[in-house]
Amino acid sequence: MKSNARCLLDLDSTITLSPVAPTNLVNKHNQLLKKNVDDFSVEDIRFMIGQRTALEILLPRAIELLNENIIAEGDLFEGDLLLSVVSLDEIFWSRNIRWYNQISELIYKSLTDVELIPLSKLVLKAVNHFLGLRENGNLVNN
Fold first, then answer.
1. Between vectors from CA 50 to CA 3 and to CA 95, what angle results, nearest 5°?
2. Which residues have a Cβ under 8 Å from the Cβ of 141 and sit 6 or more positions away?
3. pLDDT in tens, the chain (142 residues)
4. Domain ranges of the chain
5. How far is CA 93 from the centre of its chain?
6. How far, in Å, CA of 136 to CA of 116, rounded?
């Protein structure tokens, strides 16, 4: 469902543009803050989640993409979106247990479908760490 051309700057009043800097990272971040979120690609979502920006807006979109394809790929490699998502810190997940549960369920479902086999060791290590958060008692079940 398309919303009225809204960007992250419009949707989240706590977000501001970074001062223009001579780095591609800051410039890309600023450009994406002004882009209509309905036009975000997998790479755009992966990048912004990696920057910990507008997670409340972008994580549900990432979950939708991962539900369609657990190894959804931005510009880097198969599973790079999943890597960005599961690499969010324990504090975030303990405050957002519903999303943690949704992503865990997607991963477990995909494990039975053998979709995770082609993933790199880096992604598999991050997935194992993510799944271990609850098992290790690091997340409180809300």
1. 80
2. 97, 134
3. 344 559 887 787 777 777 766 788 888 888 889 999 999 999 999 999 999 999 999 999 999 999 999 889 999 888 999 999 999 999 999 999 999 999 999 998 887 665 666 678 888 899 989 999 877 666 655 4
4. 8-135
5. 12
6. 22
